[in-house]
Amino acid sequence: MIELEQARHRLEELGLGQAAQSLDAKLEAASRSQSTYLSFLNELLDAEIQERQRRNVEVRMKLSHLPYRRTLNEFDFSFQPGIDERLIRELAALTFVGRQENVLFLGPPGVGKTHLAVAIAMEAIGQGLPVYFVSLAQLVGDLRKAYEENRLDKRMRVYLRPRILIVDEVGYLPLDPLAANLFFQLVCARYEKGSMILTSNKSFGEWGELMGDPVLATAVLDRLLHHSHIVNIRGNSYRLREKRKTGIYSTPGAQVGQNYPGASGSN
């Protein structure tokens, strides 16, 4: 028993907290199965490695600022049959990140754009890639404050550092000239250096109005779309589907998604 306590204490001194915690259980299991010393040691170290990986994922998840946790397995592709599931699965394999390509999810509110962006982000976090999530309103507000305080370059690095930068809700609020210019600077700085995932309820033809400057909007889109995958979601809102079933709510106007021309695909 003294030797067991000494071993546990030494594991703790080495920073192998999970190994120290699971030592008793691993010894008992090894005794029952008559494992070799080497097998016992490997199982003890595996427990430590798995716990460290779990903690690392939790840290990266916290630093990512994701609004919630969603996986692709939780996404109901049958509710949005227009989405190319094979393309989404390919994006989740993250090869686009190595090529510094972008992903743009287009469609009306509630169709699952942010869910898919978050699900891809969680795959990236699980593979050790740094991710950062921010809405466009939060992004330009943060950069505007940094600009006014003469620390824009320093703050911009926060958005240049992650391998994947997710900018959510592009198009919900128009941008004034300074905000549009700051967004343009960020897109330019990440161009062919890091991937971006954007969600937008606006078609590309409406970005000129969104940014208040068609020429600037063209310059932004030129860089975003040069190496990109475009997923155009035509469908109904997940959030309102139960109300539609009961007849409480019906989609106003024409078919949802009609202002989002084009099909899912890559450029």
TrEMBL record:
Keywords: ATP-binding, Nucleotide-binding. It comes from Brevibacillus brevis (Bacillus brevis). It comes from the Bacteria. Residues 99-231 form the AAA+ ATPase domain. It holds the Pfam family IstB_IS21. This is IS21-like element helper ATPase IstB. The keyword Coiled coil does not apply. The gene is istB. Belongs to the IS21/IS1162 putative ATP-binding protein family. The keyword ATP-binding applies. InterPro entries: AAA+_ATPase, ClpA/B, DNAC/IstB-like, IstB, IstB_ATP-bd, P-loop_NTPase.
